[in-house]
Amino acid sequence: VHQSKLDFFCKLGYGKQDICKVLENLGQGALEDDVLKELIRMGSKPQALESQAQSSPLKLVARGSCSTTPGSKWLGEDESDSSDYLRPIVIDGSNVAMSHGNKEIFSCWGIQLAVDWFRERGHTYIKVFVPLWRKEPPRQDSPIADQHILEELEKQSILVYTPSRKVKGKRVVCYDDRYIVKVAYEKDGIIVSNDHYRDLQNENPEWKWFIEQRLLMYSFVSNRFMPPDDPLGRHGPTLNNFLSKKPVLPEPKWQPCPYGKKCTYGNKCKFYHPERPHQAQLSVADELRAKIKVTLSLGKEEEKCSRLP
């Protein structure tokens, strides 16, 4: 009896010394439940659990954190280029700069803030469209602040100038909004702007759907670029899912049954029952019928065994 109990608890992963101590204290005739309770009370743990706890310590993660690092794995994929799971970004440079300058000054620093925000998030494809005439020296009717930022972004192949020219002293400017929507549509990316592009929506029905679903609006709060956490409304996707090619679906949250074990609805109950996570939710009558069938089958097997010589 001693050896059988020793083998049984060794299979569970407990150490032989702890098992022998408990058997000496409780005696050879102690029940297995009593031995198990005494092992737990002594603080003894199975060796498999101890090795797991030592090899893989728990990591604390900030609650509600939505920040992602480029080196972290995304949906179980290998560590690869962030362009595999993040959408391309196309920024309306004029809209962002004028918004940062309170619609009075073309503030290039606002464009830099927006580019830095997407860079820190891990986006690799970022394009900013600005009319070519913004390269000219500033005037009183069109003031520009921090114009050198445009040159730096152009050297980094981030900023793109839309063409413009002068004909008989008049400036002929190409429509930069069409460049922005066309590139974002071809790249299946995100448009960063507070403009609704209503004229382009009426021009092309495919662009209309794309602008409605892929337009990311924003705000500047004390020199901080802040897009909304719910770009398509309260019932739409989160900002992380909106900016990613492979969105992460939220885990379903089951509401526990208010009646608990006293619930008589069985499989018709729409609430979650923690006491039967891996069992089919049967009604009370079906459970009783199943129990009766089991007892009857056991009785028939005993009768057959007694009839055998």
Automatic annotation (TrEMBL):
Gene: Zc3h12d
Similarity annotation: Belongs to the ZC3H12 family.
One protein family per Pfam: RNase_Zc3h12a
Protein name: ZC12D ribonuclease
Organism phylogeny: Eukaryota, Metazoa, Chordata, Craniata, Vertebrata
Keyword Magnesium: yes
Domain (C3H1-type) ranges: 251-276
Organism: Spizaetus tyrannus (black hawk-eagle)
Segments forming C3H1-type zinc fingers: 251-276
GO molecular function terms noted in the UniProt entry: hydrolase activity; mRNA binding; RNA endonuclease activity; zinc ion binding
InterPro entries cross-referenced by the UniProt entry: Rege-1_UBA-like, RNase_Zc3h12_NYN, ZC3H12/N4BP1_RNase_Reg, Znf_CCCH
Cofactor(s) demanded: Mg(2+)
GO CC term (a single one): cytoplasmic ribonucleoprotein granule
Keyword Methyltransferase in annotation: no
Keywords: Endonuclease, Hydrolase, Magnesium, Metal-binding, Nuclease, Zinc, Zinc-finger
